[in-house]
Amino acid sequence: MDWRKRVLLVGLTCVLGGGAALFSEDKPPVKEEVPKELVKLDPAEEVKLGRGMAFQAFSAEQQEAWRPAKDLYTAALEKAPEIPWIRLRRGFCEIKLEDEEAARADFAKAISQGISTDKADASNDLQFLITVRSRGGPLAEFRDPKATIALSRRLVELERSTDHVLLEAACLAESEQYLRAQEVLLARLREVEDAADKERLQTAVETFRRQSKFGPALEGLELEKEGKFSEAMDRYTNVLDQAPDTAWVLVRRAFCLAKTGDPAGAKADLRRAMRLMPETATDRVTIAWAKASCPFLEFRDGAGAVSLAKRALQDEPLIPTYGILASGYAEMGDFRRAQETTMLALSKTPTATEKKDLERKLALFREKKAEMDNWAPKASPTGESS
Questions:
Q1: How far apart are the first and last CA of the chain?
Q2: Is the dihedral of CA 287, 371, 255, 348 positive or negative?
Q3: Which end of the chain has the smaller Cβ count within 10 Å, N or C?
Q4: Residue 3: which pLDDT band, with cuts at 50, 70 and 90?
Q5: Do 204 and 321 reside in the same domain of the chain?
Q6: Rounded Cα distance, 376 and 261, in Å
Q7: Would you say residue 381 lies in a domain?
């Protein structure tokens, strides 16, 4: 049922209930009272009534009627106390009413409750929790950008819609994970057919590239995929001119330098990258990849790759990162863990491309071979390096 109809139905129920109460006052007292248990709503109906009240409260919020909205949310919580989003919305009203202490209590309680089992309630829980936990959240002690990424990922898993993917990208960008933001947007862009959705996603990609100092590097990644290594290298150089200590961009440029026939330049960039402290999840993943599988033996470091990959998985448990972790174990000579980690990644529903890459790794590890990516230039038909 459309929520507006639910709100109307609840409103009519309240009006009719009030009328019945007024009418009963004019009647002579009844000798035998109706047992309360016969008129009491069952728990499921109580929750429905509470949810309906909350929808009314949300409508009041849209009119900036904060006090009536808060009162309606309070009444709704009496009927449905286990729905976190109702408590979160009351907290937002309390912020507007300058009652931070009450809002703080509501936010803390809602966070401790977890996520509803009902899909619609769960979606609201996650979206409003993201608002509370984001960098722009109303109370500083609840802000946690890392938590917003995890919440947004759960939201996408709950329903993979363009709106939810855009929200996930925004959460990633808030933590300066522009690379991951671009990846999730482009993945969704490849899935959708609706022209309006395509336009929104493409606009978001362009916005992130324009607003981020790493915009040219994001373009470089796409050029790499097309085999345009010289052009990608130019984009990386543009970024490094402004931010010379960006580890992941140094590694990506090193790869392009190697692919264009400059192994000395590639080694110089890798040396610089390895001396830096990885600051972001993107830094950790990219350096772990180089340590686990680059062809230059002096930079290979299985233990270092494992450590960085594990930290990156704490930031975001991505299937490719599991693959890098497995390669790190293989570089250490621990082929049992390498195989176990690869099998774990395969159990997490990888894409067709991810699955193919993981199966290739697994075959290597079963033969007790470490991984070594191909950074060599592609040979031209004449036998010269391109």
A1: 62
A2: negative
A3: N
A4: very low
A5: no
A6: 7
A7: no
Evaluate whether residue 372 is within a structural domain: no
Find the CATH number of the domain harbouring 353. 1.25.40.10
Q: Which residues contact 354 (CB under 8 A, 6 or more apart)?
A: 319, 320, 323, 345
**Neighbouring residues of 98: CB distance < 8 A, sequence distance ≥ 6:** none
Which residues lie below 8 Å from residue 57, measured CB to CB, with a gap of 6+? 68, 69, 70, 72, 73, 76, 86, 89, 90, 93
The β-bridge partners of 379 are 385
- The reply to whether 81 and 221 lie within a common domain is no
Range of the domain at 221: 215-366
* Ranges 191-205, 206-220, 230-244, 297-311: which has the least confidence: 206-220
> Do the Cβ atoms of 49 and 41 come closer than 8 Å?
yes
What single DSSP character describes residue 42? P
167 and 296 housed in the same domain? no
378 phi and psi, to 5 degrees?
A: -75, 130
Domain co-membership, 276 together with 296: yes
Q: What phi, psi does 381 have (nearest 5°)?
A: -55, -25
- Is residue 21 in a domain? no
Question: Could you give the number of structural domains in the chain?
Answer: 2
The CA-based diameter of the chain, rounded to the nearest angstrom, is 107
Same domain, 141 and 224: no
Q: Tell me: pLDDT of 34 over 80.
A: no
Distance, in Å, from the CA atom of 371 to the CA atom of 26, rounded to the nearest integer, reads: 87
Residues 302/328, Cβ–Cβ less than 8 Å:
yes
Residue ending a domain, choose from 188, 211, 234: 211
